[in-house]
Amino acid sequence: MYISELGRRTKASPKAIRLYESLGLLGKVGRKGTYRVYSDQNLQQVQLIRQVQALGFKLAEMGPLLVAVQGTPDWAQLLLVVEQRRAQVAAEVARLQELERALGEVGAEIGACLAAPLPSTLADCVD
């Protein structure tokens, strides 16, 4: 398939596909005259690259893992990196939940202060 078909099927721009190729992420791409001819393996590789990018990974960090052994992904290392990112996301979720709880407390305190008779100073409102 030509680059236009690969782009249509993967929702990747021709510019992005050429970048993946220049970074060595697609392995050897066939040629028919001056045209690049992409295989089903190239299609699957572009889909994997797009999925990895959609998950927030950068090509610089994931690129070597995508073609580590004879042009195929290093699945074990990819799994390790994905699990590490999941742990980071879980820690960030916990941090955000704590922040949300603290904001709720502050909001409740401010609401109670506003409901009380008008304080003369902020110190009168804060316990």
What does this structure look like?
The protein is mostly helical. Helix content is 67%, strand content 5%. The chain is built from six helices and two strands. It has helices spanning 3-10, 14-22, 40-54, 59-66, 75-115, 122-125, and strands at residues 30-32, 35-37. Strand 1 (30-32) and strand 2 (35-37) form a beta hairpin. The longest helix is centred in the C-terminal third of the chain and has 41 residues, at 75-115. It is elongated, with a radius of gyration of 26 Å.
Number of strands: 2
Uncertain segments are none
Largest sheet: 2 strands, antiparallel
Please, how many helices? Answer: 6
* Integer-rounded radius of gyration: 26 Å
With strands numbered from the N-terminus, the spatial order across the biggest sheet is 1-2
Shape: elongated
SS-based class: mainly alpha
Mean pLDDT: 87
Helix content: 55-70%
Distance between the termini: 71 Å
The string of secondary-structure elements, in order, is: HHEEHHHH
What percent of residues are in strands? under 5%
Q: What is the compact description of this entry?
A:
With 127 residues, the chain is mainly α.
What topology emerges from the helices and strands here?
Blueprint: H1 3-10, H2 14-22, E1 30-32, E2 35-37, H3 40-54, H4 59-66, H5 75-115, H6 122-125
Antiparallel strand pairs: 1-2
Helix pairs in contact: 3-4
